[in-house]
Amino acid sequence: AVVSTQSTGETVKQHYSRLWYYAHHIYSREKRSHMMKWSKELCLSGFILPGKPGIICVEGSKESCKEFNSKVRSMNWQLLKLQHEESSLRKTKFVEFKELIFDVHGRANNHQDLGQFRNFLESQRLKDTFQILFNV
Questions:
Q1: What is the mean pLDDT of the segment spanning 43-63?
Q2: CA atoms within 13 A on the CB side of 115
Q3: 111 near 52, Cβ under 8 Å?
Q4: Who contacts 24 (Cβ-Cβ below 8 Å, separation ≥6)?
Q5: Which long-range contacts does 66-69 make (Cβ < 8 Å, 24+ apart)?
Q6: Is the dihedral of CA 29, 30, 35, 37 positive or negative?
Q7: Is the full-model pTM beyond 0.85?
Q8: Which of 22, 38, 57, 121 falls 20 to 30 Å from 28 in CA-CA distance?
Q9: What average pLDDT does range 77-81 have in this prediction?
């Protein structure tokens, strides 16, 4: 993407990143609330897929993604792995940062329908990402 500064008229290239996290689970409303707040403060888009497993996708300026990464890693996790990182000069895929909810199942209703999640990724032209996240 190209950003033009009005004061100098210079053209500056904006570097975008997209970070994909795999978590053993994301149940905590407090963690989810913090991530929603941070994404708004840092002008990031993407999503949280809560449940077991949990997925976080965050995208925006490289600097903002780096700050989000620092904040999310400061929280206590059973397992949180930065599974994949994309760097690009293109625009972001997502318009906002939101929580995704699909059909839940399992004894405690804490498992998202991963087939629906895969379909969601395919609709965003991110088909290969499912394989990267789940090593399939």
A1: 96
A2: 3
A3: yes
A4: 52, 53, 54, 77, 78, 79, 80
A5: 66/17, 67/38, 67/42, 68/19, 68/35, 68/38, 68/39, 68/42, 68/44, 69/19
A6: positive
A7: yes
A8: 121
A9: 96
